[in-house]
Design goal:
The complex is a heterodimer of chains A (about 220) and B (about 375).
Chain A lengths: L1 E12 L2 E13 L4 E6 L5 H8 L7 E6 L2 E2 L5 H10 L1 E4 L11 H6 L11 H13 L15 H14 L4 E5 L7 H12 L7 E6 L2 H4 L4 E6 L2 E2 L2
Parallel strand pairs in A: 3-8, 3-9, 6-7, 7-8
Antiparallel strand pairs in A: 1-2, 1-4, 4-5, 9-10
Helix pairs in contact in A: 4-5, 5-6
Chain B lengths: L4 H9 L1 H36 L6 E5 L2 E7 L2 E8 L4 E2 H8 L8 E14 L2 E8 L1 H7 L5 E3 L7 E4 L1 H7 L6 E4 L2 E9 L9 E5 H8 L4 E2 L1 E6 L6 H11 L3 E5 L1 H43 L1 H9 L4 H37 L12 H18 L1 H8 L3 H5 L3
Parallel strand pairs in B: 6-11, 8-10
Antiparallel strand pairs in B: 1-13, 1-14, 2-3, 4-12, 5-6, 5-13, 7-10, 8-11, 9-10
Helix pairs in contact in B: 1-2, 1-10, 2-8, 2-10, 8-11, 8-12, 10-11, 10-12
The chains are: A alpha/beta (about 220), B alpha+beta (about 375).
Chain lengths: ~220, ~375
């Protein structure tokens, strides 16, 4: 479904060039839970950003259902991000002035048309799935860190995408909260949703179907 | 919930900043609206006052002039055809034109030659009530006549005939009394005697006839050519001329007020635009990660652009409506202070308000164009990947 071939990415700065990815290849199948692990600076977050189309690679191909998305127009990329890919970041990035339910509804906002009751129900179902059925009207500031991250996951789930990318989703959470978030993520594959997660925690990575190890910008195992 | 929810909630969250921005922008609109109303009233008042410095349109009989001369001797000009106008009919037609509300004064004149105690002198029959308005620059020693046989003498004519206020004079066998003598004007007025229209018409034996009609038209907001065109259509067979120098001089004074107000308004508007632009720009910088998130959720550049434009639109809407209302009320107060409220009461015009608000909305959105464009150009990778 999603295949990266010979991906290269180099960051340029005043201090010189830093190769972040060196001919990286990776395949993700529908419903698969893939964990990318490695030390800090190994290139795992850069790979996730390239896979989720948030970052364009310098070279290589990123095939989604056989089409190279690196050649997509900005409009097609937007459509891909809206319909097929969703991302959960290390930090939840909830809009502080919208309620939990409204944050989950964000991907559905288009122009001045109001969201339909069906979409609202979908958002509520996603909140219920992450255990926040009764907190839809609360502002993010009134939720705990774990609950905020759950809302972010609900927002990603609401889009009904094919692939969910998660970048250190437990990075800002305590162990117990992190465990509950991991439990949630590892149970998503049953719907055919592929999950690609970056983590530095081998314990959490062990819950994945497949673990990809990275070091110095390359896949090493 | 729709896309407007985001700018609305953001404005509400930062209510103090939003309120201050709307207040400053609204004050700008208030100043512009108040200046516009006050300048309109002051401009009209100024133009009416300028009417006292003479007419700007002449209506004359359409007589053909024939220059007579032979063998190097000039025998002067001879008028062919009608040499006078019917007074009542001419005035009625002048008042009947489409732009009749722009006609301030209609002053008919009958020019005749009379003999004052045997000495020839030009006699001009006038309607005193109109003449007083039109000849605001006259300095009179004595008073205007209040009887039919009263006369006002030009400075040179009075000196030549030895007239002073209270002098009695016989004009072609008719007794008349000089009630006032004009100070020298440097114009044609100095050499003639002025009488009431009825006295002059009786003396000349031409009842209801006048030699020409002076018209003072208010030109602010409409070109003099348009009034002249309508007069020509209403008065076929006559010659209607605009006294361009008078018109231009008068318009210059009125236009000066309007130009001054326009310049001040543009400066205020520019400052208000800068305020909106700078505030929106700082808002974009503050919300860079929010923009990155929205882009990662699949929001298009146009979608991000529209969020910031809506925000500016909401501020502009508040500033436009509140500013207009405040400006209207303020202009009433200013005119009251200037003691001009009675003469020219301002009236609330919903169409004017709608146009002003639309303009403010457009200006507000235009001010937010660069910040909105900058926001739309944010790449999610740049905003979020640095994590």
């Amino acid at each position: 479904m999603l295949e990266a071939r010979n991906i290269r990415k180099t960051f340029h700065s005043e201090g010189g060039e830093t190769p972040a990815l060196r001919d990286v290849g990776l395949t993700v199948r529908p419903g698969e839970f893939v964990a990318i692990v490695g030390r800090s600076g190994s290139g795992k977050t850069t790979l996730l950003n390239v896979l989720s189309t948030l970052l364009a690679p310098d070279a290589g191909e990123l095939l989604y259902h056989g089409e190279d998305v690196t050649a997509f127009s900005p409009a097609r990329l937007n459509s891909l991000r809206r319909k097929d890919f969703s991302v959960v970041f290390q930090f939840h990035y909830l809009l502080p002035y919208l309620s939990a339910r409204e944050n989950v509804l964000l991907p559905y906002l288009r122009g001045l048309g109001r969201v339909t009751p069906a979409v609202r129900e979908r958002a509520d179902a996603c909140l219920a799935r992450v255990g926040l059925a009764d907190k839809g009207n609360m502002l993010p500031g009134h939720l705990s860190g774990g609950e905020q991250q759950r809302v972010a996951i609900a927002r990603a789930l609401a889009k009904e995408t094919a692939v969910l990318f998660a970048d250190e989703p437990t990075g800002n959470l305590d162990r117990a909260t992190g465990e509950s978030v991991m439990e949630l993520l590892s149970g998503l594959g049953g719907d055919g949703l592929a999950v690609v997660m970056v983590t530095h925690d081998d314990g959490f990575a062990a819950r994945a179907d497949r673990v990809v190890r990275m070091a110095d910008g390359a896949v090493v195992g | 919930m729709n896309l407007l929810t985001i700018p609305l909630r953001n404005l509400r969250r930062k209510w103090l900043k939003s309120a201050l921005l709307a207040l400053v922008f609204g004050l700008g609109v208030t100043s512009i609206v108040a200046l516009d109303y006050v300048s309109t009233v002051v401009g009209h008042s100024l133009e009416k006052k300028l009417t006292a410095f003479g007419a700007n349109i002449l209506v004359m009989p359409g007589a053909e002039k024939l220059h007579l001369g032979y063998g190097g001797f000039s025998l002067g000009e001879m008028s062919l055809g009608e040499t006078s106008l019917p007074e009542a009919a001419t005035e009625a037609r002048v008042r009947s034109i489409g732009l009749s509300e722009r006609i301030s004064v209609v002053a008919p004149k009958l020019v005749a030659v009379a003999h004052a105690d045997g000495a020839p002198v030009g006699l001009v029959g006038v309607r005193w009530d109109r003449e007083k308005v039109l000849k605001g620059y006259w300095a009179l020693n004595g008073a205007f006549p209040d009887t039919e046989n009263g006369l006002v003498a030009g400075a040179a004519a009075a000196a030549r005939l030895g007239l002073s206020p209270g002098s009695k004079v016989t004009l072609d066998g008719r007794e008349a009394v000089v009630t006032g003598v004009l100070a020298p004007t440097g114009g044609d007025d100095d050499a003639v005697l002025f009488s009431g229209m009825a006295f002059c018409q009786a003396l000349a034996g031409t009842p209801d006839r006048v030699s020409f009609v002076e018209v003072a038209a208010l030109c602010a907001g409409c070109p003099i050519e348009e009034i002249v065109g309508q007069l020509r259509s209403a008065l076929p067979g006559t010659e209607v001329k605009a006294l361009q120098s008078v018109v231009k001089q008068r318009m210059l004074s009125v236009d000066f007020v309007r130009r001054l107000v326009l310049t001040v308004s543009l400066v205020i508007l520019f400052i208000a635009c800068c305020m909106v632009g700078v505030t929106m720009l700082s808002s974009v910088n503050e919300r860079i990660r929010e923009i990155g998130l929205l882009r990662s959720l699949g929001f298009s550049r146009a979608g991000i652009f529209s969020i910031f434009c809506y925000e500016a639109l909401l501020i502009g809407l508040f500033a436009g409506v509140a500013g207009y209302g405040a400006g209207f009320l303020l202009s009433g107060r200013i005119l009251g202070v200037l003691d001009m409220a009675k003469g020219a009461a301002i009236t609330f015009d919903p169409a004017h308000m709608a146009m002003t608000c639309l303009l403010i909305l457009a200006v507000s959105v235009l001010s937010a164009f660069f910040p909105a464009w900058k926001a739309s150009a944010v790449e999610p990778s740049r905003a979020l990947v640095s994590l």
